[in-house]
Design goal:
Largest sheet: 3 strands, antiparallel
Low-confidence stretches: 178-187
Distance between the termini: 65 Å
Structural class: mainly alpha
Strand content: 5-15%
Number of helices: 6
Shape: globular
Helix content: 55-70%
Mean pLDDT: 86
Strand order of the largest sheet: 1-3-2
């Protein structure tokens, strides 16, 4: 617990909470805060240790998992970014010799990206560092606590997937169709 003389914690998602907020809301904001803190740490370490970014790391990770390469459209879907983002990253990584473009034999418009030998070597170095950083970020929890948290989150995940599915099926109740008729004047 902070002492009156200790500096205040930096604002985060949990600073929005009030004492009467529902436990589920508190949990959601705690998870969001932890995720943001982890991601910020990883971004900073990637930049400092490898002069790289998280999107570049993520693209290289996808290609490392698929030695036969992936179409740019597949990468776009997997990374949940636009094709333009993939093209820009691919241009940079190709210029650095970390990946190469290959034509797709059955689709003249498509291009498959795959890691070069230098890209595989560079990613292996980054992945080793990444694993060390993630392990160190969770050192506040014992191995048993980490397993317990993993089990609890595994129980939560199917309900979240179902909630996402239901949310996608919902139509806003206040959705109106636009009328092409001129507005009526009030007399």
């Amino acid at each position: 617990m902070p002492t009156p003389d200790s500096p205040p914690s930096p604002p985060d998602h949990e600073t929005r909470l009030q004492a009467h907020d529902h436990t589920a809301l508190r949990l959601w904001l705690r998870l969001l805060t932890c995720t943001s803190l982890i991601e910020t740490s990883v971004r900073q370490i990637l930049r400092a240790d490898f002069d790289s970014t998280l999107p570049r790391f993520d693209l290289l990770a996808q290609l490392e998992r698929h030695p036969q390469g992936l179409r740019m459209s597949e990468l776009s879907q997997r990374l949940m970014v636009t094709g333009g983002n993939i093209t820009a990253l691919a241009d940079q990584l190709e210029a650095e010799g970390l990946l190469r473009r290959k034509p797709v034999s059955d689709d003249r418009r498509a291009v498959r990206l795959e890691l070069s030998a230098a890209g595989r070597k560079r990613f292996a170095e980054m992945a080793e560092g990444h694993e060390r950083w993630i392990v160190s970020l969770f050192e506040a929890l014992s191995h048993d606590e980490q397993r317990q948290l993993l089990t609890l989150l595994a129980r939560l995940k199917p309900g979240l997937v179902e909630g996402k599915r239901r949310a996608g099926e919902r139509r806003p109740a206040n959705r109106r169709t636009r009328s092409t008729a001129p507005p009526r004047s009030v007399a």
